[in-house]
Amino acid sequence: MFNDLNPILHSQLRLAVMSLLISVKEAEFTFIREKTNATAGNLSVQIQKLKDAGYIDVLKQFKDNYPQTICKITKQGIDAFSEYVTSLQSYLGK
Amino acid sequence: MHKYKAMSEENKLSGQESLQIITEMIQKVKGTFNENGSSAILWGAVVGFCGLLSFAEIQWKFDVGFPVWGLIMVAAIPQMYIVFRERKKKLVKTYQQEATDNIWLVYGITIMAFVLYQSIVPGVSDKLTEGEGYQLLQKNIATGAVENYHYIIPSGSSVYLIIYAFPTIATGLVCKFKPMIYGAIICYALFLVSLYTPFKYDLLLMGLAGIFNWLIPGFILRNRYLKALPA
Fold first, then answer.
1. Interface contact flag, A15 B5, Cβ < 8 Å
2. Given its phi and psi angles, is residue A58 left (phi above 0), alpha (psi -120 to 50 degrees) or beta?
3. Taking CB atoms and an 8 Å cutoff, what residues of chain A touch B25?
4. I need a surface site. Which of A57, A75, B94, B133 has the fewest CB within 10 A?
C-alpha cells in the first residue's frame, strides 16, 4: 500500500523525530527522548539512521562536563519530509 | 503515554497513524514552554521603578542621592546573566525563539545607540554652530535676561517610549502572546500622551510603560511557565 513512501521516514520513531525536528531549529537528545518517550538505545539507533540518510545533523559536545547531543534537520531532511507528507496526503486522499 | 516504536512495527504503520504522529509531535513542540518571564520581570521592574522614582523626586522635591536611571545599567548585568543562563538550560531552540532573541538584541543596540545620541549630539551641535560663526541665545520673557542657548534633544522620553514598544509588540505578534501586544499598545498610547506632557510626566509615563510593557506580561509568562511544569 505504501510502497512509494520513503522507508527511512515511514517508521514510528523516525517519523516522530523528524516531525519534531521540522518544527524547531535544533533540539537536544534528551528533549527528543522526553517527547517521543523512546528508550535512549532505540532513539540513538534511529537518529544514526536519519543521520546516515543525510536527513539530520548530529553535533556531539560537552556542556558542564556532561556529553550533549544536538540534532538539527538538514535541507535534505526538510525536502524528504515534505515529499513524505505530500505522498501521504495523496494516499489518504484516495 | 504513547511510546513510539521503531523496528518491528514500522511496516504496519498506516497512513492515519503517520498523520497522527506528525500532528502529535508538532503539537508537543508547540506546547513546550521555555520562557519563564525572568528577563521581562527584571527589566519591567527596573524601568518601572526608575520612572516612578524619578517622577517622585521632581514631584515631591527630594533627592535619592544617586542617578536613578543608572540603575538600568546596573540591572543590565544580572539581565545578561539571566539570558545566558536560560539559554544554556534550554534543551530546544525554536525558530520563534531565534527570531525574538534577535529582536531583543536589536532593541539593546538601539537603546544604547539612542543613549549615545542623546549624550553626544547636543554638545557637538553647540560646537558645530559656533564653528559656523553663530551663537544661539535664549531670552527669559519675564526678566528679559539673555543667556546662551545649548541644544537639547526635545522630548527624548517620547522616543524611548517608541523604542520600548517595538520589541514588545514584535515579540507579542511573533509568539501570539496577547499581554505583550496589549502592553505595547498601551506604550504607544503613552507615547502619544508624552508628546504633550512636560518632562516630569514623561518620567511617570516611562515608569508606567515598564510596568505594562514588561512587568505584567512577565508575571503572566512566569505563571504560565510554572503551570506548565510537571507536578
1. no
2. beta
3. 16, 19-20, 23, 35-36
4. B133
